[in-house]
Amino acid sequence: MPEPIRVQCCIAGGGPAGMMLGYLMARAGVKTLVLEKHADFLRDFRGDTVHPSTLQAMADLGLIDAFLKRPHSALHRIGVEIDGERLEVVNFDHLPVDYRFVAFMPQWEFLNFLAEEGRKLPALTVRMQAQATGLIEADGRCVGLAARTPEGAIEIHADLVVGADGRGSILRDQAGLKVQTLGAPIDVLWFRLSRDPKDEDQLLGRVNHGYFIITIDRGDYWQCAFVIPKGGLEAVRAEGIEAFRRKVADAAPFLEGKTAELRSFDDLKPLTVTVDRLERWSKPGLLFIGDAAHAMSPIGGVGINLAIQDAIAAANRLAEPLAAGRPLGDHDLDAVRRRRLPATRIIQGFQVLAQDRLFKPGLEDGRAKIDPAPIRLIAHLPLLGRLAARMIGLGVRLERVKSPGG
Ligand SMILES: Cc1cc2nc3c(=O)[nH]c(=O)nc-3n(C[C@H](O)[C@H](O)[C@H](O)COP(=O)(O)OP(=O)(O)OC[C@H]3O[C@@H](n4cnc5c(N)ncnc54)[C@H](O)[C@@H]3O)c2cc1C
Question: Is 271 touching ligand 1 by the criterion CB < 6 Å?
C-alpha cells in the first residue's frame, strides 16, 4: 500500500453534489480530492435539468456565459397535455433571479463542465476510476477513506470526508446512519426515440389514456420517461414489447410512428424510484450531502439542484475554517443538515404528496394511470402555478455562493 494521500477535504462521488462541492472547496483554497468510481461522466438516463437555482450559482461563480455555451435547450414554461388538452402548469418568468428557465443539458455535459473548470484550480484533484471502499476511523472519528483504483488500493487522509456517493451510498451504510424511507409508488422506464425537426414543439409531460410520459428534447432524439407502478416491470414484460409500444403511442400519439424503434426490452432502462433521508447527516469528521443524504423522487426534476444547494451550503459553512486549518466540530458539520433539512423535508413532502395524489388512484389495476385533477387545478390557479414555479425553479431556500475565492 502506498503512503496515504493527505488532503483537507476528500469527497466520495463525482455527481452533481460532489463535483460542485469539490469546485467550491478548491476555489476557497481547500486542498480537495474527489473520487469518482466511473471512468467518465457519460452515464445516460440521469437527471438532465439545470434549474434557475443552479444557473444562479453558475452566475455567482462567474461561469454562466461559458456554461450556457454548452449544448442545451431552454425551457421557460412547463406544459402538460391531458387527454389532448394542453395546459401551462409552470411559468418561470416571475422568479426573482437572472436566469428564469430550466436548461436541459445532459448530465455528462454539466459534470464535464465542472471538471474542466475545476482543472483550473490548483487545489482540486478529481480522480476517476477511484472507488471509495471504506471509511478510515481513528478514536471515534472518520479520518479518511480507503479506495480502489486501477493502480491498486490507496488511502486518503482528510480533515473532512464527504459522502456524495448517491442514493446507493455504501459509505452511509458503513457509517451506520439511520435512513428514513418515505416510499414511492412508481418506477420509471427510460428509453429514446428519434426526433425529427418537424416533431411537435417541446411539451414536457403527457397524460393520455391514463398513461404518463415525459419527453425531453435532446436534439436528434427524444429522451422518454414512462411511469409504471412500483415493481411493475415484470408485468410490463409479460405483456410483451408490442403492448408497451402501444402504451407509449397512447400516451404520446406523436410518437406512434417511432415506437418500432423499441426492438426489445433491452432498449428500456428501468430506474427504481426511491425517496428517503438520513436522520443525521454527519458523524465526527464525516458529512453526507445530495442523494446520499436524501434520495429524491424524479417528480419536479429537482434532485440535481437540491444536491447542488447542499454543496453550496456545505462550502459556505465549512470552506473557510477548513482553509484556515481550524478543526471542524460536530456542531459545524451538523449545521449543514440544520440549514438544508427544512428545504429537503418540504420538497420531499410535496413529492410524496404528488406521487400519492397523482399516481396512486390509478395504480389499482396495475397501470400507473394519473389523476389529472391536481394538474388542472395548478394550471387554472395562477397563484398555485407561481408557487410550483418557485418550488421547482428555486427550491425552498435558495443558497447563494458565499465561499471565498474566485
Ligand atoms: C428516474 C430518475 C430521474 C431523475 N430525473 C431528474 C431530473 O430530471 N432532474 C433532476 O434534477 N434530478 C433528477 N433525478 C434525481 C437526480 O438524478 C439526483 O437527485 C442527483 O443526481 C443527485 O446528485 P448526487 O451528486 O447527490 O448523486 P449522484 O448523481 O447519484 O452521484 C453520485 C456519484 O457518486 C459516484 N459513486 C457512487 N459510489 C461511489 C464510490 N463508492 N466511490 C466513488 N464514487 C462513487 C457515482 O458514480 C456518481 O457519479 C432523477 C432521479 C431518478 C431516479
Answer: yes
204-242: b (≥16 Cβ within 10 Å) or e: bbbbbebbbbbbbbbeeebbbbbbbbbebbeebeeeebe
Tell me what pLDDT residue 51 has.
95
Q: Which range, 114-118, 182-186, 212-216, 222-226, is most confident?
A: 114-118
Q: Which atom of ligand 1 is nearest to the CA of 216?
A: 8
- For residues 80 and 216, what is the distance between their CA atoms, to the nearest angstrom? 12
Q: Which atom of ligand 1 is nearest to the CA of 147?
A: 42
**Under 8 Å CB-to-CB from 48, ≥6 apart: which residues?**
104, 105, 106, 107, 216, 223, 301
Least reliable range by pLDDT among 39-48, 96-105, 120-129, 372-381: 39-48
Pick the atom of ligand 1 nearest to 35's CA. 43
What is the identity of the amino acid at 29? G
Q: Is the CB of 75 under 6 A from ligand 1?
A: no
pLDDT of residue 367: 66
Which residue owns the Cα nearest ligand 1 atom 45?
13
Closest ligand 1 atom to residue 133 Cα is 41
Ligand 1 centroid from CA 264, angstroms? 26
Does residue 117's CB lie within 6 angstroms of at least one atom of ligand 1? no
Cβ(395) – ligand 1 distance below 6 Å:
no
Is the pTM of the predicted complex or chain greater than 0.90?
Answer: yes
Q: Which domains does the chain have, with CATH numbers?
A: 5-70+105-182+274-359 (3.50.50.60), 74-101+185-272+389-397 (3.30.9.10)
Residue 48 in contact with ligand 1 by CB distance below 6 A = yes
pLDDT tens track for 136-156: 999 999 999 999 999 999 999
Contact 167/291 with Cβ under 8 angstroms? Answer: yes
